[in-house]
Amino acid sequence: MMRFVGRIEDGQLACNPPPERYPQCQLLWRGFISNIDELLKEADRRGVQVAAGSTGELFSLAYRWWGDALQSHVVGEYSLAVFDERSSALLLTHDAFGLLPIFYRAVSTGVIFGSHLEDLAADSGLDDLDEEYIADYIADCFYSSERTPYRSIRRVGFGRSIIYSSKRIIERRSWAFSNTTSVLASDRDYEARFVSLLAQAVTGALRADAPVWTELSGGLDSSTVACFAARTGAKTLEAISLTYNRYAKADESKWMQLLLDHCPIPWTKVDGDDILPFCELPDRFCAEPGLPMLDWGWHRCREELVMKAGAAAVLTGQGGDFVLFGLGTEPYYLADLVRTLKLRRLYAELTSWRSADRQKRSILFWLASYGVSPLIRYLRDPPQRPGRCPTMSPWIEAHYAEKMALEERVGRILPGDYRSIEQCWFVDTLSKICGRIANLNQLPESFEFRHPLLDRPLVEFLLALPSDQKFNPEMNRFLQRRALKSFLPEPLRLRYDKTTFDQPFYEGLRKGKAWTSLLTTAPRIAERGIVDSARWIEAVGQAKLGRTHSLAQFQAAATLEIWLRQMENRPTGSDRKTLRIGTDQGTREAAA
What is the pLDDT of residue 389? Predict the structure, then answer.
């Protein structure tokens, strides 16, 4: 089941497609379960006879066993609606990280719900715009709350489930990270456990009734996923990559080839020179603004190739940079050493970080940046996320920034009971990353993305690691690099540089005349008082030359502008086959 929408009215379920029916419940679901073997063992332990072992049957059994706590026991990437025929109650849930989101909307006669925001937003216009969501999006281009662009529609939150019963909507916390630390006997035990969980995650993501492809970008994370997928011997596995000929700094072909020489699988290459960012406007309605709008040419091309091959899913390495403690992860465990007054260990750790620092920054720098400052932010009421917060871009209207408290929004954290500053940072950042991935997962029409590096048991293990297994001043991705010594080619395993895609991004903007025309002709974000029109137009010109104050805020504003124009011109009824995005200089049409 790829997509579903439904309504509860007068205690009855109406939905499309028809639900799967099991004893005392009806199900609508999307996605996959990765811990099938565990659920089958649970059935055997309970003496339950499993008929076919289908995804729907396993969901129904999990609901029978655990009720609204199902999310804690079922691992995978899924969105799920369960209508309980005994109580006429509805359970809306998803995988704990919300990688496949589910949305709901209260109406006078009941509740409407669905796996895709577009289906619930069909009748929503600009008069339903949620200004709080817009401000969050402009501030840092992430999604980490239950809000959507529409005041009347909510998404089920990170680690949350929704119950609709007796005309009431009840939110339940249905999963949370454990507060225990993983303690194993030796480095080798940690490495073996990591490899076992990684193999389990990839194997689970490969389960499908049709071929499965894997994205290969040349980086360590996508290479790790592709390598472990190839090691399973999956006969229909194929890699897909975006390569560049004219933009050498962005081309990763040599690293891709290195992995494929090591793990031979069929390879489909797509010429990125022809589908740069900003080369195409979205040709169908996007229910919310998001970064995929910028790379619409690549998304369209990938969809066509995957659909032609009949593939059911595409594996990615998304999330790996963060959960494997690579680029962008920082040693906030030092703040916990300050908080708990473990001063001897704190001094030893600060000395190690200073000694390994290529910039030779002082112990005082490390103490202030990763010890004292994060602690102060954590102790505020409400707590603020650790780390440096970006300043607002000069083209954002000052009155709007002050009115909507944009700088304060950047520091907000996902509400929760955190045992440490490091856990607060990890969970909050993870929720933002998963929100962005959930936005991407709304786009495919013929397949689904799967993200093995965000498999919940693997991520739980990684967060529970002691700090000396997560971080090493001499090496990032400390556990990953050690554990994969016999799996990946050595140059790839030990690769420390990371290619940036600034060159094709800014070149695409320079060439993307349709995009730049819309961004600079009577900008809707200026009309709404979000940006200063003259400064925004100047910022677009500067971006074409490769200069931005905050790339994330620029991307957020650009995608918001196009989305607002889509909302203005969104077709309804029989006219929805054509999406029109117009300017004063003319109108562009695209088949939806």
Answer: 73
The first and second tokens of residue 571, run together, are 């077709």
Q: Which of 544, 557, 320 is nearest to 454 (CA)?
A: 320
Q: Show the beta-strand stretches assigned E in 125-230.
A: 154-155, 160-165, 168-173, 212-215
To 5 degrees, how large is the angle CA 349–CA 350–CA 354? 120
Residue 159: both structure tokens together: 């680690």
Structural contact between residues 554 and 277, judged by C-beta atoms closer than 8 angstroms: no
Closest CA to 459 of 319, 332, 333, 334: 319
CA distance 76 to 256: 27
Cα 420-425-431 angle, rounded to 5 deg:
125
Q: Which residues pair with 269 in a beta bridge?
A: 241
- Judged on CB neighbours under 10 Å (0-12, 13-18, 19+), 456 is buried
Q: What is the pLDDT of residue 571?
A: 63
The per-residue pLDDT for 553 is 94
The pLDDT of residue 382: 84
Dump strand ranges (E) for 42-150: 76-84, 89-94, 103-107, 110-114
- Amino acid 572: pLDDT: 56
Which residue in 269, 261, 273 sits closest to 217, CA to CA? 269
pLDDT computed for residue 585 by the predictor: 34
Q: Is 115 in contact with 100 (CB distance < 8 Å)?
A: yes
Q: Is the Cα torsion angle 89, 92, 93, 94 positive or negative in sign?
A: positive
The confidence score (pLDDT) of residue 575 equals: 47
CA angle 344, 348, 351 (to 5 degrees): 140
- Distance, in Å, from the CA atom of 449 to the CA atom of 517, rounded to the nearest integer, reads 32
- pLDDT digits over 206-245, tens only? 999 999 999 999 999 999 999 999 999 999 999 999 999 9
Q: Which residues of the chain have pLDDT under 70?
A: 1, 144, 571-592
What per-residue confidence (pLDDT) applies to 255? 96
> Mapping DSSP to helix (H, G, I), strand (E, B) and coil, where does residue 44 land?
helix
Helix (H) or strand (E) holding 46: helix 36-46
Q: By three-state DSSP, how is residue 246 classified?
A: coil
Report the alpha-carbon distance of residue 427 to residue 424 in Å, rounded: 6
